[in-house]
Structures are given as C-alpha cells and as structure tokens.
Amino acid sequence: MSSVAYLNPTASVGPKYLIDSHDLLIDGRRVPAASGEYFETVDPATEQPIARVAAGDAADIDAAVAAARAALHGPWGRARASERGVLLLRFAERIRAHADQLIELESLDAGKPVSAIRRQDMPAVLDTLTYYAGWADKVNGQVIPARTDALTYTVREPIGVVGVIVPWNFPLMIAMWKIAPALACGCTIVLKPAELTPLTALLLGELALEAGIPPGVLNVVPGFGATAGAALVNHADVDNITFTGSPTVGRQILRGAAGNLKRVTLELGGKSANIIFADANLEAAVKAASAGIFFNTGQVCSAGSRILAQDSIYDEVVERLSERAQGVRVGNPRDRATTMGPLVSAVQMKRVQDYIDVGQREGARLITGGTRLGERGYFLKPTVFADVGHEMRISQEEIFGPVASVVRFSDEEHALRMANGTRYSLAAGIWSADIGRVHRVVRQLKAGTVWVNTFGPTDVRLPWGGSGDSGFGREHGDIALQNFTETKAVWINTG
Q1: What is the tens place of the pLDDT at every residue in 234-255?
Q2: In this structure, are strands 188-192 and 485-493 parallel, antiparallel, or unpaired?
C-alpha cells in the first residue's frame, strides 16, 4: 500500500472554481443566497478549503421553484419533444467539451480518484444523457378501444416541477440519473446537491444553459439538508421528489412530502451480500469482491460489504482478500495511479472508525487495515474482518467505508438466509459454476439487482433500486420515465 502523497490540486481546474465565491443558479442567473450566507467546500485529500458556496435556504428554494414553474409553462413547456431531445444531446456535447474540468472538480470536491471518474462516472453521465435524449419523443400514450361510440386514449404529460436531491458519493453521475429522464419528459428541476460536493452541480447548470436549455429549467440551489433540502421537500408547488441517500433522511422526506402528497422516489442504503460458493472461480471472485468493497472507498450504496464464503474455501477467501486489500494504492485522488482516495469528510471517517471499533468489540477478527493512513486527509486503510457473525452490527448496518466483513456459510439454504437477513435489498452477487444453483439462488434472493459471476456493473438501460431500507421505485431504463410523467385518459364521444 502506498503512503499518502499530494499533487498540486489546482493544476488543471480553472481558477474560477478555486478562488471565487459560488452563488446559486436560479432562472439562468447566478444569484447570492437571500441570507447572504456562504459555506466552504473542503478537499477531503488535504482538508483544505476549495471554494465558498452560497448557502441556500427556504427563500431561495421559493425563488427556484417559481422559476421552474414559469419555465414549465414557458418555452420549455411549449417545445416539441424532439426539440427537447436535441437540446439534451447539445447538453451532452457541452459536458464532453468540459469533461476534464468536471473530472478534476469532482475529484477535488468528493475525494474520488480521477482515474475512476474518467473510467466510470463521466462515461455514465454521457451515456445516461444521450440515452434519455433518445427517449424524449417516445414517451407515448396508447389508444384503448373501450367503447365503439368513443375514441379513448391516454397521453403522458410531465409531472411538473421536480425536486432533485443527490448524495456526495457520486455527485455527477447520480445527478444525471435524475436530471436526464426528468428533462426528457418535459419536467423542470430544482437540484439540491449535497453540501459536501456542490461544485460540479453548479457547472452542470451552466453547461445546460450553454446548450440552449432555457433559464429556469435546471436550477441549482446548494445548501444544507435541514434548510434547503427540507424546504424543497415541503414545498407545496413541487410535484415530485427524487432522492438518493440514507434511510434516515429518506423517512424524513416521506414525512415532508405528505403535505401535498407529492410523488417520491427513494434510492437509499444497502448491505449487499456477495456469495462465493466452493465451486466458484476464486481468483475472479475475490478480485471482484475487493473492487466491490474498496471501489470509491466503500462509499457505494451497493458495495459488497458482506462477503459470504462457503466453509471449505473460507480461509482462502480471507487470505486472498487480505492480500488484495494490502495492495490497494491509497493516495492523492489527482494521481492517476491512485485506486482509492480518502473518505469524504471527517464525520464520515469517524463513523467508519467507530464501526471498526464495534467490530472488534463484538469479536470479529481484524485481518488487515482498520487505521488511518497519514496525518492529512481522510484516508483509511482498506479493512478486512474475518469470523464475522451474521448478527454483528458490522454485518447488519451500512458502514459506507472500505470495510469488508467475511461471513462463513455452510450450504445454499444457510447462504440465502443470511443474504436476505438484513433490512436492505438493493443488490447481491453470486459466484458459482453450477447453473442450477445460480437459478435457484437468483429466484430466492431479495434484491433489486443480482450479479452472477461478476459484481457491481450497472447500465442506464437496466432498472436500479430496491425495497425496505433500500427505498422504493426504480431509476434507469424506460421505467424511470414513469417517475416523471402523469397519465391522462381522454374520452371523445363519437356516437
């Protein structure tokens, strides 16, 4: 494992994003927060401030929602669906032209390795936007022959003003998961980025304007959850909330959304089981298991944080995983050789360290890692626990850090009982050469996505989501269009 080293964080990011105060983006204009307040966004790798950002609150949300409502009934609402598709493609072109800047900003703000953003996040952003650009003129109703004396059909209309609240672990990618289908359906947006990672959201808003998307269609209001976030959720003129984050906040959003019964989509936590049977290809399984928990410093809702290994291969899985953990290149995210950066904040680092302490107190065996790396930045060594009991907190609760719990199982039934034995149901993985077993286990697993002999890939064409403490509703694919449309039945008397 490498020691932590630092590069010049200002090397390729324009000075505007490093020395200016960043105002809100409402109705196509940068405006200060009504309160005049600002907060600092901090580089997790250096613990140094990057920039000052306006702290939006209820008054700013009011202004942004009013702008979004006006745009909904203005040029955006009157545009043909095909015109929306063209504008989304232009938006993708502007993002592609500014990809390097977005990648560097994302790395600075979130502590994500530039190599990972370039390999996964940025291609996913562009793929998502171009995919939904193609859907813009294909959101169809249908003719339903209910009566011979009537023409009866349905139309799908934009749901209206959408409140988008995104997390700090994939700020660009998850924002686009929500922005692209909402805009394709003709909705307008008020985007509240996480206060830890607001910079790329603001740049996205500017690029949308450059692409020709009208003012007020995509408004960006950074701020804190208790102020800007709560105001957006509670706002009577917001028709839909789409949120990715923690189950605790998800429950708060449900309570707030009850005021005007707005529609809500929640993508929440996970405690995904990665099940390795004795007949699996162990080299491939452990390689994927390592990536599944250490990618993005474990700050992934679908991270394979519970690695279930069958008795006869358990010790070998632990040994191989430990070796891989010790080989992870931890360091400055701007170094292209780095494979794991810091945790996003001091608060998150303490949370993960507290869980490591809990695991040891409960009797799990710490194999490797578990300690801070370096004296500057929120770096933590990749951590592997063995002899983890299914009921232990590190096996049941989402840690959201680079901490793998390796749990022993005896047979198929035992593995399924443990895999399904948490409050979460977002994803799961199976490793086996027995196709009959694969089909049996897939059928019985409670998970929105099941990977077989792989772990972690996603695609915008496939639905994404879970149930229980993993939330409800689905993103991606054509099913996401249902989140942002209302169906209207039309009955024309012809008799």
Answers
A1: 999 999 999 999 999 999 999 9
A2: unpaired
Residue type at position 254 = L
Task: Report the distance separating Cα 163 and Cα 491, nearest Å.
Answer: 32
Contact 263, 483 (CB under 8 A): yes
Q: Could you give the residue numbers annotated as active site? A: 267, 301
Contact (CB, 8 A) for 344 and 378: yes
Residues 116-147 have pLDDT tens digits of 999 999 999 999 999 999 999 999 999 999 99
Could you tell me the domains of the chain? 16-268 (3.40.605.10), 273-459 (3.40.309.10)
pLDDT at 13: 46
Give the DSSP H or E segment for 243. Answer: strand 240-244
Note the pLDDT tens digit of each residue in 196-205. 999 999 999 9
What is the mean predicted confidence (pLDDT) over 64-68?
A: 98
Query: Which two structure tokens, joined as six digits, stand for 80?
Result: 């043909």
Q: What angle do CA 18, 24, 25 make, to 5 degrees?
A: 110
For residues 462 and 477, is the Cβ–Cβ distance under 8 A? Answer: yes
Lookup: tokens for 94: 């502007």
Other CB atoms within 10 A of residue 193 CB: 29
| Residue 6 in this model has a pLDDT that exceeds 50 | no
How much helix, strand and coil, in percent to the nearest 5, is found in the chain?
40, 20, 40
Structure tokens at 201: 């959201």
Give the integer Cα–Cα distance in Å for 393 and 271: 11
